[in-house]
Design goal:
Blueprint lengths: L1 E8 L5 H4 L6 H14 L4 E6 L3 E8 L3 H4 L3 H9 L10 E5 H12 L11 H15 L5 H20 L9 H13 L6 E5 L3 H12 L3 E6 L1 H4 L13 E4 L3 H4 L5 E4 L10 H8 L6 H6 L4 E5 L16 E5 H4 L9 H24 L3 H23 L7 H20 L1 H4 L5 H12 L7
Parallel strand pairs: 5-6, 5-8, 6-7, 8-9, 9-10
Antiparallel strand pairs: 1-3, 1-4, 2-3
Helix pairs in contact: 5-7, 5-15, 6-7, 7-15, 8-9, 16-17
Length: about 425
């Protein structure tokens, strides 16, 4: 079994390059099924966020099937020339890949060091792979262990951060530029998790917020839609006309196309902002935040004279690993324990064929013992259950007493103690 991954992220690639390899949720599911079938993979998981895209695969130890790299697979699915972006990707195998994932779920590789959102993103990637039948035993074990490690680190280690999400960065920037946000008119395009988070933060600061909803998705009745408290609903189709009078526009959708095009908004952003706060304090700029990958806002809008446009690369900042040196070491100690657990799990997998052979031998022995006594027992009687238990017991005894001849005496106690602990584990209950 071989675990491999390839990834592109903010550390080596700009947003222009990352968005070429981004996937919507529907795109992730479609790509998973296609990759597993086309490349004969045992399993695959695709993680696609604003800051990174990673493809994880597990393969049989078959050189013929393993010749194609995960990077080539990703390019084939995206229909991208493999010569264009290879320098922006990092490929990792087995232990190196697992070490990366353990640190990733703790936010060590995030743009905002130590941020929490990556845990839910990794969990969602695993869940989508499960739904598509692509999470094989090895990837399932690796990702479950990484999520458990990340949860323990978040519980026991305190990593200091300037902010924990892109949503909070929006607020930080606005407060820095505008001061008090009370009454500032805002439009949030997108009713997803990020959009709602931004709305709730803006409302908490006293801003006047409207949010777009797609009627085809949410129905015609406003009550059928999930709208954060103290936020008004507007139709997504009316988003352009709704820009008028708004000083802050935030777009966070899963759309593969621009939600705001330069030619559509030219008339609004070519003149100074004249809302109440802008007039009284001379702050006549419009503040646009694009929290999507691929981008929602046409980059050409940034050239308009009264626009400040922020994307996820230009707005994120946070504390560094150096500022958390002591806490980072505590986290590394925790991750080392989980890494060692995975090392043992993978090392033991080489014995699975031998274990299955032993199971078959013991099962056959128990079956023969039961058949030998079955003719003397009335069918469906309690005695048949006792006979089955007796047969299983004798087969197990043969296995255990056989250790006397097969193992050096100094290993008897250690081996039997381990078997006893294993046998004492809770039996599956129905």
């Amino acid at each position: 079994m071989r675990i491999r991954m390839v990834g592109i992220d903010h550390s080596k690639a700009s947003l222009d390059y990352r968005e070429a390899f981004s996937f919507t949720k529907a795109g992730v599911k479609e790509a998973l099924g296609e990759m597993k079938k086309r490349f004969q993979l045992k399993g695959c998981i695709l993680l696609s966020t604003c800051n990174r895209t990673e493809l994880w695969i597990s393969q049989c130890d078959n050189e013929k099937l393993n010749k194609i790299s995960p990077y080539d697979m990703l390019c084939q699915i995206k229909k991208i020339d493999t010569s264009l972006y290879e320098e922006y990707f990092i490929e990792r195998d087995n232990r190196q890949a697992i070490e990366h994932l353990l640190k990733l779920v703790c936010g060590f590789d995030s743009k905002i060091f130590g941020e929490d959102q990556i845990i839910s993103q990794v969990r969602e990637a695993l869940q989508m792979a499960r739904e598509e039948g692509c999470a094989d035993m090895a990837l399932e074990k690796v990702f479950q262990t990484a999520l458990a490690a990340g949860k323990k680190v978040k519980t026991e280690v305190r990593l200091s951060m300037i902010s924990r999400s892109s949503a909070s960065n929006v607020i930080d920037i606005l407060k820095s530029e505008l001061g008090d946000l009370k009454g500032v008119p805002c439009l949030v395009i997108g009713n997803g998790q990020m959009g709602k988070l931004v709305v709730n933060m803006l409302v908490a600061c006293g801003a006047s917020v409207s949010m777009t909803l797609r009627r085809k998705m949410h129905g015609m009745d406003e009550q059928e839609s999930i709208v954060p408290e103290r936020c008004s609903m507007v139709s997504y189709d009316d988003r352009i006309s709704q820009i008028k009078g708004k000083q802050v526009i935030v777009s966070a959708t899963l759309s593969p196309h621009y939600t705001l095009r330069s030619e559509e908004v030219q008339e609004f952003f070519s003149v100074p902002c004249i809302t109440g706060k802008a007039v009284s304090e001379g702050k006549n700029k419009y503040y646009l935040f694009d929290l999507a990958v691929p981008r929602d806002v046409d980059p050409a809008i940034a050239k308009m004279p009264y626009v400040n446009l922020f994307d996820i690369d230009s707005m994120n900042s946070g504390s560094s690993r150096e500022e958390n040196a002591e806490q980072v070491q505590l986290a590394i100690n925790i991750l080392t324990e989980y890494q060692e657990e995975l090392d043992r799990w993978f090392e033991f997998r080489q014995y699975i064929p031998k274990i299955q052979e032993i199971v078959n031998l013991v099962s056959e022995d128990a079956e023969q013992r039961f058949i030998h006594t079955a003719s003397e027992i009335e069918e469906d009687s309690e005695n048949s259950v006792l006979a089955a238990e007796k047969a299983a017991g004798k087969a197990t005894s043969k296995l255990l007493y056989g250790l006397r001849e097969q193992l050096p005496q100094e290993l008897w106690e250690q081996c039997l103690d381990a078997l006893h602990r294993s046998a004492s584990r809770e039996t599956l209950k129905h």
